[in-house]
Write a structure and sequence with these properties.
Chains A, B, C, D, E, F: It comes from Dioscorea alata. Six copies of one chain form a homohexamer. Chain A starts with a helix and ends in a 5-residue tail after the last helix. The first copy, chain A, folds into two domains: 157 residues, serine acetyltransferase, domain 1, CATH 1.10.3130; 128 residues, Hexapeptide repeat proteins (UDP N-Acetylglucosamine Acyltransferase, domain 1, 3 Solenoid). In chain A, the strands form three sheets. The first copy, chain A, has a six-stranded mixed sheet. The relative contact order of chain A is 0.08. The radius of gyration of chain A is 20 Å and the shape is globular. Chain A has 290 residues and is α/β, with parallel strands linked by helices. The interface between D and F is large, with 58 and 52 residues.
């Protein structure tokens, strides 16, 4: 086998002399080459989606366009839209790179950057959302909503184009995530599947949660209303949260109770959104005696 | 800009001299014209889906056929099926109009009727369900189940074709909704995403919930068995309901507890399925002390 | 009508002289003939998907290939992959037959074997997973992950290709099911929609649940971590389970409490995964007093 | 085999009590049933295209729509267009029936009416032309030209939508036929492949040939300019015709010479467009001496 | 009707202050607006193909990509290829504009520039050929040949990517045109359908015709071998030409005879490729005696 | 560049120790590897069509299925059909290999075997015809005719499935070729585009030409009726042939005259179908005097 994968796929983290973006893109191409060589049945897909492209922005635009197109929204139209938006707003690509790094770092099931780029519906839904959000912000709302609808159909991920999301995000598994119009999500947040950041009532206005940096939200958690989840907080799987959760505090249960909190200085370094510890804290609160 | 949108898009509610259906359809066309003029990239989609059609029934049939088709169930076949069913059962279209009005009225994120028609997977799943239900009722069960399957794949909304649903419904976000074979849902009900109206056991027969008029069911609520949820009841987000819930009563928690109830005459006018107040009532029940 | 359906569709169970596979396949063809005769609009679909094929393996390969294909993963490529895998690993087809029998036996809404084969997204996701798992086991991981991704997009069912699943499984409704990399599921298990068998933390290794034979897991239940759910246990709808659940024991609530257990010898014959009794046991634990 | 094809496929010609259209349609359905029974691999196609439909107009509309659609002209749009046009202009369907009868009668390679309906690109191009011509006549020229373009791409048959064509036509093989804007073709004409009825010069106006009833035009013949080809004339294969050809006269050669003519009263009954004798007359003119 | 088409569609020729390209593009957009307003059924196509685009290069790239794509050569890939080539070689677009002007000027059936851009398979095949030729010249031969193959399939026009073609060309009707590897075609040439510029023998090297400026080649003419067709020559329909044809000379017949020639000074101004007089000259040569 | 193409692409002819089929297939894969390495934009196509496959039969089946599929004849169905037919009739693949060798040998524009396999519509139409012919011979006529129709639409090549064709054939350019039901074509024949082997009259029976081994038929030649074209004969471009042509004789003109013939022993070695000399012989006959 002529391709010494161990040598050519650089190890994490990137050397300081390179930007994250070029480093991640070269990594992705090396992975795709290795996989195309070992799996001829997948080589066509890998060449079309990654190896035929000259940049991550083009590869991602191509992949999203072919995932999200339909008989009435053509892939060529979407491809144009993605290419132009990534070109106009370079920060969108930086955010995509931060998400790739976050996914690789936090999810032990993520075996490579190309695995995330190609197959993570949460990652792809996030990138499409960022494009929709830039359209929304530019008052191109009907187009933003059409794109939103395609993401909701194809990935079962429903993020309103007005929602403001940070970077370094992980939407793990992602199916069923719903994030409402006035929600705000900070950086380095990890959100599991079936999580709702929902509103309440039929009045408009600011009515959805505000999620601080580094928060971890477990599978199936429902957070409703214009509440604040402080930096580094953890929301337990299956929790129903209707109140503010202070910084570095844990909320668990239905309805959620708060445990821990700021008085835990020894854990200041630990960022739940990054450590992805979904369960240990729940034991602090619940007693499982039968 | 030659299109004075403010003048041409009529304001809600329709003048008394017009039927809801013709009023809503003219509204939708005016909105689509405005959006096509302002967003050339979307104009092709808007013309194909709305502006090329002479009636709401044709527009909806076209849109559903192109959303739900697959390589083995052609869009032309589905288009025929939808056209013929809407033509044979005019009440299906009245129900669609009632759903459009309900969505616009209750969901502050819904910016226009065309937004709902084009992009709300819950709305589209409901209309496809009604067609599947009419096929089921006409003993065309294999076709009804094939259509049901397409809706479950494309929208992640799983409504058994035998389920009987009222009108003026809002399936908000809609991903993950499951409604079983013998379920009945009244009029003016609002159901959030991830809601289950499920059966229990492997015996056949009448085994799914009966939901009264004006009920509000919050995100992720699970209602199991042949239980009755009375008119105007509220089911809290994330609740697990295994028992009857009386009229105008609230059920919250896992398992659900009942609060409020008929003894609240001052709230008689308020229909939860319409007010969409998902959270305030939960505070009446839960105490958040840490 | 020339086709005496009653005579030609054999009754369950199959006569002893026949294998399950040939019996089920002849059953499916008889059902499809009956339905094609009664519903011309569906006949094309039934011929393409079932009646044109000479074996269940070919029919299933064709149907999965056309369901899971995309513009970058062609149906012909997937068809080849499924055909070759079913041919190389006959046990995959036996498992499919066991799943068909389980679905027909346990789900009162399942009206025929062909109904399950054609329309049950849980059944189809399971069969695609088994193919992905065989690829994973043969170290063809990039291809296994690409297939996994298509199943997650199309069916909103997310089963990691490394997860080891038994046979005779029912994934009812199936939308939103998530099963992680190191999860193990026994035989004759029934899993409702929105169920998570999830991991915790960002460390790799054995971190997902182990589900014993005959377990029933209710809608929306979340089981996290490397915990053991013993044979014949029941997990209530909406439960959050973070601990081992002993054999024939029931876990309900958020967080889950255990009830019943081994001391119930009179129920030894009853297999919850087969009886599908989702709710009665919950009453043993919760008191609904208002 | 339960389908006694010999009995159910009526013999030609139709009994006097039936209209050609209903007789031909019942014939087509009987043929399709016979073929679907004998060839499972084709049954899906036959059901989708013929057997699922309630009339020849619907079957033909469906088949043309799926043949002529493209990624920018959707099958559902074309289907609508064909259905509405056949419904508004019943003479189009009569002409289609006359063409079916003509093809079956004149072409020994045509084994059945369904063979012609499904597979003869000349027949299909003619029917699409008639629809385009009705659009042209109704001043819907851009749509007529778009349809013309699809026919030219898909069938390599280029008939200007303004050309006026009779009925009972056979376009045998059809590839490469070009018929210009001001051409007129009578009834019961047979035209082989690569035939041109072309104009000359860049001036507009009436500049294309006029073809009388019952004319036969051999393969590769080129007729240019506003010339008249009289009733019952024959144009030899490969001929170049720039002059009028009198009634019942034969033109052969490049440039064409005329032979025979009105002085042959004994052949008055013989209609060349129906007898399809392409070659014998050429011997009357040419001497093959080596 | 708010769109005064007469005012907004500028008359030919363009005012001197404008480039041909910007003038033609504004013309095309005005025509498309007019047609979209008058024909809602076509509006979606016109917006997708013309009105959503910011330049002729983008519109043409989009249209060609959607015409020429297949299940194994995706529209997004072709779109990229066309966009990049038109961007790198601006002369390709100038040639396209010259062809548009030539078609509009010479073909009385061409009713508008958008008619040619959208519907003329000869025009579209020429533009795709020019892209293929630029790939061939850049030694990207496998890609050039793949594009050549798509053009031959979709348009039945077979121009070898190595052939060198001028501009201001009209390929009228175009079906069946074959132009070989070493052929050269000058400027302002008009070529009818079924014309062959072919080689002879199995030896490589320079073996195809060289066509001078302003030549007119009639339908079905076959020119074989490395012969020179002088400037302003005419080749009659159906001719077989194996010899050089001098400047301003006419060749007709099978095999072709030469008539006229340089001794006709009074016709010096007349360019046959532009006047499109296909037939008058043939009478000078042939005698039609019956 | 790691792939030393010069070494790995074997030179023609194959070494004696190898079968033509395995040698040609290894050649094709080497060419495709070389081209995929040099042209990333084409690599996806090359991997999907050639490099992912384990045999020429699979590659050819895949390519034909994706070329010939339509919305009503799925690629998976056609793929199955081609695979099974090539597997049942190994001689079909031998004929394909002979055609590949013939094309490479005779056509100087053919740069590689993969060029022919991927891009020559004549080659592909021939292979599809052979499959259709085997279906016809097995009395699966409706399926044979459906396949015939797809070939006529997609490639504009119309070969009746009953026609019996030899091997080592070259259909160069191929557009417009028509070969009738009772035609027979020998081995090592070369047929240019627009050639007709047609019948005459509306009577059935044996009515099409019989073409001997090694015949060359020039572009646009029309041969009509049950005539015999002897071994090694040449038919000039644009000829109209209605009579037998003896062995090693040349026919040219409209109508064709015969020249040369058996009395030319010195040319016995020369096979016109292989030498592809289309024009020199015509000079022997025609005098070009102006």
């Amino acid at each position: 086998m002529p391709f010494p994968a161990e040598q050519q796929i650089p190890t994490f983290p990137p050397p300081e002399s390179e930007s994250d973006e070029s480093w991640v893109w070269s990594q992705i191409k090396a992975e795709a080459h290795r996989d195309a060589d070992s799996e001829p049945a997948l080589a066509s897909f890998l060449y079309a989606t990654i190896l035929a492209h000259t940049s991550l922005a083009r590869s991602l635009s191509f992949h999203l366009a072919n995932k999200l197109c339909s008989s009435t929204l053509l892939s060529t139209l979407l491809y144009d839209l993605f290419l132009q938006t990534f070109s106009s707003f370079p920060s969108l690509l930086s955010a995509a790179v931060a998400d790739l790094l976050a996914t690789r770092h936090r999810d032990p099931a993520c075996v490579s950057f190309s695995h995330c780029l190609l197959n993570y519906k949460g990652f792809l839904a996030l990138q499409a959302h960022r494009v929709a959000h830039s359209l929304w912000s530019a008052s191109r709302r009907p187009l933003a909503l059409a794109l939103h609808s395609r993401v909701a159909d194809v990935f079962s991920v429903d993020i309103h184009p007005a929602a403001r999301l940070g970077k370094g995000l992980l939407l793990d598994h992602a199916t069923g995530v719903v994030i409402g119009e006035t929600a705000v999500v900070g950086n380095n947040v990890s959100i599991l599947h079936h999580v709702t950041l929902g509103g309440t009532g039929k009045a408009g206005g600011d009515r959805h949660p505000k999620i601080g940096d580094g928060v971890l939200i477990g599978a199936g958690a429902t957070i409703l209303g214009n509440v604040r989840i402080g930096e580094g907080a953890k929301i337990g799987a299956g929790s129903l949260v209707l109140i503010d959760v202070p910084t570095r505090t844990t909320a668990v249960g239905n309805p959620a109770r708060l445990i821990g909190g700021k008085e835990a200085p020894s854990k200041l370094e630990d960022v739940p959104g990054e450590s992805m510890d979904h369960t240990s804290f729940i034991f602090e609160w619940s007693d499982y005696i039968i």
